[in-house]
Amino acid sequence: MCCLFVWYHGALSRSEAESLLTLCKENSYLVRNSQTCRNDYSLSLRSCKGFMHMKFAQSADGRYVLGENSPPFSTIPEVIHYYTTHKLPIRGAEHMSLLYPVIVQTL
Predict the structure, then answer these.
(1) Is 1 part of any domain?
(2) How far apart are CA 14 and CA 53, in angstroms?
(3) Torsion angle in degrees (nearest 10) through CA of 15, 90, 92, 32
(4) What does the pLDDT look like over 18-68, one tens digit per residue?
(5) Which of 39, 48, 51, 40 is nearest to 14 (CA)?
(6) Which residue among 24, 27, 30, 72 is buried most deeply as judged by most CB within 10 Å?
(7) What's the total number of domains in the chain?
(8) Which residues, other chains included, contact 48 with Cβ-Cβ below 8 Å and sequence gap of 6+?
(9) Tally of CB atoms within 10 A around 106
(10) Residue 79 falls within a domain, yes or no?
(11) Domain that holds residue 54
(12) The SH2 domain covers which part of the protein (predicted)?
């Protein structure tokens, strides 16, 4: 994943993601490397109930999906772009879109 995307935080832990999202409003999100599998990525999201963490699944043909009812996309940025204008296909987040990227702070 390229560092050109303001919402991509790289090797951020789940708890670090939650710390960043604590200060944010509902529908704020970031993408980070999965802690359980080095080659996977996770979406961390601030919802009205707290935090949600979802792994991007990769199909056999290398396309990415988010949740069971997501259409397949060629890249994670395409997934993110799509869900800025569409509701998430995730149980508990059906009313939400990706509205507010948590921007990486550089020193």
Answers:
(1) no
(2) 8
(3) 10
(4) 999 998 999 999 999 998 887 899 999 999 889 999 999 998 899 999 988
(5) 51
(6) 30
(7) 1
(8) 26
(9) 5
(10) yes
(11) 14-101
(12) 7-102
Give a yes or no: residue 72 inside a domain: yes
CB atoms closer than 10 angstroms to residue 95: 11
What CATH number is given to the structural domain containing 36? 3.30.505.10
Length in residues, the chain: 107
Contact 97, 27 (CB under 8 A): yes
Give the span between the Cα atoms of 82 and 77, in whole angstroms: 9
34 occurs within a structural domain:
yes
DSSP 39-97: T-EEEEEEETTEEEEEEEEE-TTS-EEESTTPPPBSSHHHHHHHTTTS---STT-TT--
pTM for this entry: 0.90
Task: Give every strand in the sheet of 64-66, ordered side by side.
Answer: 64-66, 50-58, 41-47, 28-33, 100-101
- Single-letter code of the amino acid located at 26: E
Structure tokens at 23: 């200060």
